Amino acid sequence: MKKGLLFTLIILAFLPWTKAQEKGTTTHSPIYLPQLKAELPKEVSETSGLFFHNGRLWTHNDSGGKPILFALDTTDFQVVQKVTLSNVKNKDWEDVCTDGETVFIGDFGNNKGNRKDLRIYTFPLSSIPAEGDTFLQVDSIRFSFADQTNFEKRKQAHDFDCEAVFATEDYLYLLSKGWETGTTRLYRLSKNEREQVAEVVNGFDSQGLITGADYDREKHILAIVGYVKDIWKPFMYLIFDFEEDGTKLSNRRFEMPQLSGTQTEGICFFDDGRCYVSAETSPTVTTRVFVADFRKWIEKELKNKEK
């Protein structure tokens, strides 16, 4: 085949994919590269969840780490403050979120599928001092999954792991990590009951492992991060028009093939349409933090609503 003809065929094959992106359809996912901000200190090499408060990025380590929340300065991303939860352990902390009044820490990592002590630790956001380290006593929400009946050890061969929690005005929501099917289920919990069952209210084919989420309560936009099993190819989702009943999950997926090998774990909004995304140490990539700028997609969605 002549080179000119081959080049033309390649261009023609590529055009529908490009147009699909321009129209904002969900047929194809945009290729997106977030901005690398910094490598993170070894003290948070297993960064798993994120939230933004008082101009600082807060994170924690996952299973086996100390029960500490670390505040990172957003200039050099060094640790500048620590909050230690003095009456609990870090069995497997996987995510953290806030609703503007309360902090919620998810100790619900369940790689083997046999945990019966799933918990979310809570304390008032106002308990964090403006400066300086502190120790806090916390409450906990104990829960189980309504649809889980098998508690045999099944390492990474089940769908009852969880690494993502986010808060709306009235509820807490969990997104499962589908080791077996690569899908995710959306569970709902009350913020106030101390012992309860997480009911399934929705779900979708995430085509990978969901590892973190955050919710913009003003614009009703949910941001999700994860990666494809075994190859650590990261992706993100934006879900528009998320409602309290969890029934709407219309989404836009963002592929990040340039970051293959990166184990993305945490995500949080810190500005209007912008998110921090963290990645823990993997066999090929060190711990680091990125900025994902979703403003043009959010603005486009808002304009479409006005039509």
Order of helices and strands: HEEEEEEEEEEEEEEEEEEEEEH
CATH class equals Mainly Beta
Can you give the mean pLDDT?
A: 89
With helices defined by DSSP (H or I, 4 residues minimum), what is the helix count? 2
Instruction: Work out the strand percent.
Output: over 45%
CATH architecture: 5 Propeller
Number of domains: 1
Dominant shape: globular
Query: What would the CATH topology be?
Result: Tachylectin-2, Chain A
How are the strands of the largest sheet arranged?
6-7-8-10-14-13-12-11
Using DSSP, what is the number of strands? 21
What percent of residues adopt helix (DSSP H or I)? 10-25%
Write structural notes for this entry.
The protein is mainly beta and 307 residues long. The protein has one domain: Tachylectin-2, Chain A, CATH 2.115.10. 11% of the residues lie in helices and 45% in strands. It has two helices and 21 strands. It has helices at residues 3-23, 295-306; strands spanning 35-39, 47-53, 56-61, 68-72, 79-85, 93-98, 102-107, 119-124, 134-136, 139-145, 161-167, 171-177, 184-190, 195-204, 209-216, 221-228, 233-239, 251-255, 263-271, 274-280, 288-293. The strands form four sheets. The chain has an eight-stranded mixed β-sheet with strand order 6-7-8-10-14-13-12-11, with no helix packed on it. Strands 2-3-4-5-9 form a five-stranded mixed β-sheet, with no helix packed on it. β2 and β3 (56-61) form a beta hairpin. The chain is globular, with a radius of gyration of 20 Å. The N and C termini lie far apart (48 Å). The model is unreliable at 1-27 (pLDDT under 50).
